[in-house]
Amino acid sequence: MAVVEASGLVREYRMGTEVVRALDGASLTLDGGQFVSVVGPSGAGKSTLLHIIGALDTPTSGTIRVDGTDLAALGDDEASEFRRRRVGFIFQFFNLVPTLTAWENVALPMLLDSKSLRKARPRAEELLGRVGLGGRVNHRPSELSGGQMQRVAIARSLMMGPKILLADEPTGNLDSRTGAEVLDLLASVAHDEPDRLVLMVTHDENAAAVSDRIVTVRDGRIDGRPA
C-alpha cells in the first residue's frame, strides 16, 4: 500500500524580488514496509520534500497524499493534528527535553494529546525496551550517550503509532559504529510493520546504502539515475 503519493510538487519561495524554486515538479510513490533514503546535493530540495511530506510545509502546486490524507486540503489545526498523530519525527540533534526522563520524553506526544503521563508510561517503557533501553527509563538526556539519546528519540517517534517516520540526518551527530546501530534500528522499525514507512534524508552515502531504496533529488526533481 502506498503511504506517500506525490505528483508534480512545486515549492517556490520569494526572497526579495527573486523567486527560488526548491521543488520543480517532483513526483514519487513510496510504499509501506520500507526504509527509504533521500539523497542529493545541498540545495537540491531534500529537506523541502521531507517538510511537505510531514505537513510542515505546503506545496505551491501539485498533489501530496500521505497515509490516504490529502495534505493540501488541511487547515492549520488539521495539519497540526496530522503531524501529532500520524507522523513521527527524528532529528539530528535528538530534540529531547533535558529535564525529563527517558520515559517522559517518549511519552511527551501523548501529553500533548491531552493524555496523562501516568497512563502513557507503560507504552513509553515498552517502546524503550523495543529500542534496547529498558534499563534506562529513568535516566535524563545528560546521563545518556548520543546513540542512546537517538534511540529515545526513535521510541518517541513511535509513541502515537504513526504510519510514517521522517528522519532528518539521524546519524549526523553520531560516530560510525553508533550510527550503524541506529540505522539497523530504523530498518527494523520499517520492516516490522508492513504498512510503516521510514523516510530518511542523509548526506552519508554509507547510511543510504543500508536502506531498501534510494531516492535522489537533483534540482528540485526526483532523479531516476542511481544516487
TrEMBL record:
GO cellular component: membrane protein complex; plasma membrane
Domain ABC transporter: residue ranges: 4-227
UniProt keyword Plastid, yes or no: no
Record-linked PROSITE patterns: ABC_TRANSPORTER_1, ABC_TRANSPORTER_2
GO molecular function per UniProt: ATP binding; ATP hydrolysis activity; transmembrane transporter activity
Annotated keywords: ATP-binding, Nucleotide-binding, Transport
Name the record gives this protein: Putative ABC transporter ATP-binding protein
Organism this protein belongs to: Gordonia sihwensis NBRC 108236
